Amino acid sequence: MATDPVTVTFGLCVKIKQVLGIDAEFSYQGQLGFSPHVGIVYEIKKKKKIPSAIQTTPTAIEKIAQQ
After folding, report:
1. Closest Cα to residue 12, out of 3, 25, 21?
2. Which of 27, 46, 47, 61 is deepest in the core (most CB within 10 A)?
3. Looking at residue 21, what is its pLDDT?
4. pTM for the complete prediction?
5. If we measure between CA atoms, which residue out of 35, 15, 19, 38 comes closest to residue 27?
């Protein structure tokens, strides 16, 4: 635990699109002064698997391969 020098930070995230955002942060440290920080956030989402409406039965070759 440090008591001196004190560091103060403030951050903000703005979402531009559903998967894209920008992070901005400012920090202050007694000996170093102000330091800006910027980041870009991109969320990778898995595609949802759409179930097939048509149900098929396995072919003879698929049955052999499963054995």
Report:
1. 25
2. 27
3. 92
4. 0.49
5. 35
DSSP states of the chain: ---SS-EEEEEEEEESSSSEEEEEEEEEETTTEEEEEEEEEE---PPPPPPPSS--PPPHHHHHHH-
Average pLDDT over residues 16-20: 87
Give the span between the Cα atoms of 24 and 8, in whole angstroms.
14
Residue with tokens 């499963």: 66
Residue 18 has a pLDDT of: 84
The bridge status of strand 33-42 relative to strand 7-15 is: unpaired
Q: Where are the domains of the chain?
A: 1-44
What is the spatial distance between Cα 33 and Cα 6, in angstroms, rounded to a whole number? 11
Mean pLDDT of 32-59: 79
